[in-house]
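Follow-up to my post from last week.
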Amino acid sequence: MSALPSFPITPLLPEIRASLAAHPRLVLEAPPGAGKTTQVPLALLDQPWLGDGKILMLEPRRIAARAAAQFMAQQRGEEVGHTVGYRIRFEARVGKATRVEVVTEGILTRLIQDDPELTGIGAILFDEFHERHLAGDLGAALALDVQGTLRPDLRIVVMSATLDGERIAQWLDAPRISSPGRSFPVKVAYPPARVQESTEHHLARVVRVALQENDGDVLAFLPGRREIARTQSILEAPLDHPPLPLGEGLGERVRSERSASVSPNPHPRPLSQRERGEIEVVALHGELSLAEQQTALSPAEPGTRRVVLATNVAESSVTLPGIRSVVDSGLAREPRFDPHSGFTRLETVNISQASADQRAGRAGRVAEGTAYRLWPQSRRLDPSRTAEIVQAELSGLALELAAWGITAGSGVELPWLDAPPAGALAQGRDLLTQLGALATDGRITALGREMLELGATPRLGAAALRAATELRALVADLLALMEARSPLRGEQARTDDFRARVNALHAWRDRHTAGARTGADAGALAAIEQASKGWRRRLDVRSAASGVPDSHAVGDLLLHAFPDRVARRDDGNPLRYTLANGRGARLHESTALHGEPWLVALDLRFEARDSLILAAAPIDPRVLERDYPAQFRRERVLRWNEERQAVEAFEEQRYAAIVLDRRSVPVKPEDALPALLAAVRAKGIDVLPWSEHAHRLRARMQALRAWMPELGLPDVSDAALLDTLDDWLAPYLNGKRSLGALGADELSQALGSLFDYEQRRQLDAQVPESLTVPSGMNRRLDYAEGEPPVLAVKLQELFGLADTPRIANGRIPVTLHLLSPAGRPIQVTQDLKGFWERTYPEVKKELKGRYPRHPWPDDPWTAAPTHRAKPRGT
DNA sequence: CTCTCCCT
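User reply:
Got it. Predicted complex:
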C-alpha cells in the first residue's frame, strides 16, 4: 500500500478501512478527481473481514469500467485479468486470481439473481451512485436485501459525488466519510439574457465573452442537437457588430460576481479578425460517429482555440482536455415515462444543482477556470438529479422483481432509496403479461426467466425468444440495431424505414460496398456487429445473417417486441395509422414507408393527438393472426348516431383496438336500451321530448316536495332524474331504438311513475294544475321552482272572492296576476283583500272608461263574477 | 420532420 501514489482520498483510506471493519455499510462522498474509484477497492483487499472474498465495484459506464480496471492493474504492475479484472456485457477479463471485479450496473443484477447468497463476494462498491441509474438503484436495493437476510457480513459502500450524502446515509443507516477532490477553483458568473434573447443567442454571446476573458477552450452545455446546430450557426456567422466593448455588460458583471479565487483575464479585448479565424467550433453529442467525437475530444491544433458545443455526454462520459471555461444553458433533455399513454417522451428540463456543479467542474480540471451560468442566480435548482426509477418505463424492473418473488400482490418490498411509482410499475407488468413474461397471477413464467437470462430488454427478449430457429441470426442483428443509435448517415439517416439499417449492416458485413457508399458510419456498424456477435453467441447461432431479408421479415420478428405498436393505415388518410393500443400515429410526409397497410412502429415521438413514427417496418398481418389469436375478436358494437339520435349496431372484427372490418347489423332491443340510457346520461335530460305538460308536471312535483316535505317525495331535479334513469325512464324506452321514438305523453307518464298512487292523489289535491275561480272557470296555476304558484286571471272573474286562494293545505298563497278585460296586467298581489280595499277603487276609475262594457261594481265583494262582457244594449 | 444519456 505504501507504494500507492498520493490522491486526495489517500489520507482517508485508514478511516474508510476502520469504518468498514466496524460497520458493514458506508457512504463515501468524494468529488471527481479524489481517486475513490481507483484507490478504495485496492485499499480494502487486505482487510480481515474480506478473507479471500472478492470486491465488486459497479460503474455506470463500460468505458469507465474498463478504464478503472486498467488503472488499478497498472498500479499493481499487473495485466488486467489478474488481481483486477472487469466484466461488461459480452466482454469479460477476469481470471482465477481476480479479487477486484469492476462491473457495469446491469451485471450486478444478473449476479445477484443467479446467486442471491453472492458466494465469494465480500464487498460491493457502488461508484458514481449519484447518477441514480435504474440498474444502480435496483442493484443497491437487492444488495441491501441480501445483506439484511442471507449475508450480514457483506460490505456495501455507496460512493457519491453530491450533496445528497446525508439522505443516502440515512437510507443505508451508515456512517458517512467525505473526501476533498482534486480540482482547481472555478469562478461562477450568472450573465443575464437580454430582453427577448433566445437561449442560443444568449449562449453564443457568452461564449464570445468566455473566449475574451479566459485562456483555453470553452465547453458549452446545451439540451440537444437542435440547439447545438443553431448555436453553431450563430457562432460561425460573421459578427454584424463588434464584440463586446470593454468594461460594459458582461465583462464587468463577471468580475463582480461572488468572490473569485482567481481573476479572469483582467483586460478582455475584442477578438481580432485573426484571432477569430483561429477559433474552431465543434459539436459533441451521442449521435456523432466515433471519428467525429474524436475530433472534439482530441487537443486542438496549437494556436487554435476550441469551442465545444455539447449535450450531456460531456457531463460525465467523456473527458475534454484544455477546457478553461464552461458556458451552461442549465438545460438537459430527459426521458419521462407516461403510464397513461404507455409512451416515453423527452422533456427539456432544468438541470439539478449537482449537474450544474459537475458541469462547472469541467472548467477546473487543468487550471483555474470560469463557469458562466445562463439562468438567474436566484433560481432554485433541485439538489440532485431525479432518480431514473421514478420517471422511467419499468417493465425491465418489474421482470427483475418478479424473478425476486415480488409481484403485484406479494406485499414484499425492497429497501428502496426511491420506490418505483405504482402506476409505471403496473404498466410495466401489463406489458410483461402481454409479452408472455408474467402469468395471469403475476408470477414470472418460464419465458420470463429465459428473457432475464438472455439479458435484453423484455420487449426485445420476447421477440428474440419467439423467433424461429432459422431466423435467430437475423434476430441477433435486430437486437444489436435496436439497442444502438442508427448507423445511417447523410440522406439515409432521415429514413423511417428500419430495414435500411438492417440492409446497411448486411451490406457492410458482406463487403459488397464500402462503408461510405452504404451511407452508414463504419465505426457504428463495427460496434453493432460486435453486439450482434454477442447476441448470436447467446442465441446459439453459428453464422451471421446476410443479404436483404424478405420485405416483411424484419417487421414480423419485431412485432413480437411491440405487439401494442402494430399499426394499421387508416382508410381516409394514407399517412395516418391506428396503433393496437388505440392511439393515433402518423408517418411524416417524406416517409419511405408510404402506402404500407400494416407496420410495427419501433420508435415514436409522442404527441397528444397523433404520435410521429420515427422508425417502423412493414408486417404481414397473417403473423398477427397466427401468433396473437386471442387479440382477434369479433364483437357486436353499439354506437350512438348523433344525427339520427339513434342506436346503431355493428359487428366488428378487430386486432386489439384496430378495427379490421365493420358491418351493420340489426339492433337488438336489449342492446338498444343501455345505449339509449347512456345517450341520455351523456347528453343531459334536455335531450328528452319535454312537452309543456311534462315541464309543468315536473314543476308541480318539485313544488309539492318542497312545500310538504313530510310526504318524503322523490327528487325530480335534472341531476336526480339522470341518476335514476334506470328506474323511471327505462320501462318507457324499452323496445325503442331512438330517442325520437319516445313520445311526449310517454315522458309525462314516465315522470308520473315516480310517484305512487297516493302521492299522485296528493299532487292533484295540494298542487293542482288549475283553480276554479268564482266565475266558474278553471284557471291554470304556473309553478316555478322556489316560488309560489302564479294565477293569472281577469279581475272580473274574482268578484265575490274576499281572500287570496291558498294551496298545499293552505300553506302557500298563490300570487295573483290580476288582468284587465283585455288581458293586460294590472296588479301582482298575494293580498286580494287589500287590493279590493285600497287599489280597486282607483283601478276602476281608470279603466271603467276604457272598458265600459265590463262590469265595474262599487262593491266587488257581492258583485257577480263573470268572464264575459255585458251583452250589448243592457 | 427531427430524440438526452446509459445498461443486462
